[in-house]
């Protein structure tokens, strides 16, 4: 089952989607964060829930539109606003769903957000499983998503529109917030046994070498899916990544 709803908390309005088997059976909740230009109607989140619920009917999955994504009405995307959304979602999960355990999940930009939240607030999750996390999000935005001309335009105060599943306004504030929120120097080893990462070795958006070095530095377990790109477009490779993530939650 699934339902859409607005989460109004702390002056924020989050457009949410909740997957569950039955409202009475929820004992575990996965807070899943989508990628850049994505939204709550996320293929990976839906298939991940199906894989988890096949094994455990007590697990629910909550996903929402990140700031400026999907149906969200925020005027500007910043790392700070993303952190506020995560905090509001966690408060809702604890106060309204009241699960025994909360897990973290996400892809790409969603993986970056999860890791950044740990850096700023500590770890609220029993376990975290991430696919293709954008550990160098500032570089991805400045060098892979935007052109040099677009980046310079932003720095000069112009708004640049980036299109994907969502159409995003990228501003000077957006660029500055990501440049000031690099996670590469933070020590994640206190949480290393709680985190699992799966990445494709044919990723041209978030280099596998970055993620490999990040995991090895922080003693984080990771698995490689050979031939997979950033979006795991091939069904069998996507299924393999989700199986690995689900197994980490269950072990």
Number of distinct beta strands:
10
Tell me the major beta sheet.
8 strands, mixed
What Rg is obtained from the alpha carbons, in whole angstroms?
17 Å
Architecture (CATH level 2) name? 3-Layer(aba) Sandwich
How would you name the CATH homologous superfamily? Alpha/Beta hydrolase fold, catalytic domain
Widest β-sheet, arrangement of strands: 1-2-4-3-5-6-9-10
- The computed structural class is alpha/beta
Binned strand content: 15-25%
Provide an overview of this structure.
The chain has 251 residues and is an alpha/beta fold. The strands form 2 sheets. Strands 1-2-4-3-5-6-9-10 form an 8-stranded mixed sheet, with helices on both faces. Strand 3 (28-33), helix 1 (43-55) and strand 4 (59-64) form a beta-alpha-beta unit. Helix content is 39%, strand content 23%. The radius of gyration is 17 Å and the shape is globular. It starts with a strand and ends with a helix. The longest helix has 19 residues, at 79-97. Helix 1 packs across helix 8, helix 2 (79-97) packs across helix 3 and helix 5 crosses helix 6. It has a single domain (2-136, 183-250), classed as Alpha/Beta hydrolase fold, catalytic domain (Rossmann fold, 3-Layer(aba) Sandwich), CATH 3.40.50.1820. The model has no long low-confidence stretch (mean pLDDT 96).
Topology:
Elements (H helix, E strand, L loop, with lengths): L1 E8 L2 E8 L8 E6 L9 H13 L3 E6 L14 H19 L3 E7 L1 H13 L6 E4 L5 H9 L2 H8 L4 E4 L3 E4 L1 H8 L15 E6 L7 H11 L2 E5 L9 H16 L1
Parallel strand pairs: 3-4, 3-5, 5-6, 6-9, 9-10
Antiparallel strand pairs: 1-2, 2-4, 7-8
Helix pairs in contact: 1-8, 2-3, 5-6
């Amino acid at each position: 089952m699934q339902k859409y709803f607005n989460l109004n908390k702390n002056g924020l309005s989050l457009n949410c989607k909740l997957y569950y088997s039955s409202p009475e059976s929820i004992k575990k909740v996965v807070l899943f964060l989508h990628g850049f230009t994505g939204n709550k109607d996320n293929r990976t989140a839906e298939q991940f829930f199906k894989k988890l619920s096949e094994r455990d009917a007590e697990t629910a999955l909550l996903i929402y539109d990140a700031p400026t994504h999907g149906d969200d009405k925020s005027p500007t995307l910043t790392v700070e606003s993303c952190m506020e959304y995560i905090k509001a979602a966690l408060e809702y999960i604890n106060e309204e769903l009241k699960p025994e355990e909360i897990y973290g999940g996400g892809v790409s930009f969603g993986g970056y957000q999860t890791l950044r939240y740990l850096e700023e607030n500590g770890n609220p999750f029993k376990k975290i499983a991430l696919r293709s996390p954008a550990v160098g999000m500032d570089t991805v935005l400045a060098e892979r998503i935007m052109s040099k001309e677009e980046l310079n335009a932003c720095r000069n105060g112009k708004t640049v529109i980036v299109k994907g599943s969502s159409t995003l306004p990228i501003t000077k504030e957006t660029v500055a917030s990501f440049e000031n929120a690099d996670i590469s120097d933070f020590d994640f080893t206190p949480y290393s046994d709680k985190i699992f990462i799966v990445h494709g070795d044919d990723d041209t958006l978030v280099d596998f070498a970055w993620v490999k070095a990040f995991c090895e530095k922080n003693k984080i377990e990771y698995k490689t899916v050979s031939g997979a790109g950033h979006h795991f477009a091939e069904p069998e490779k996507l299924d393999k990544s989700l199986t690995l993530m689900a197994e980490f939650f269950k072990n």
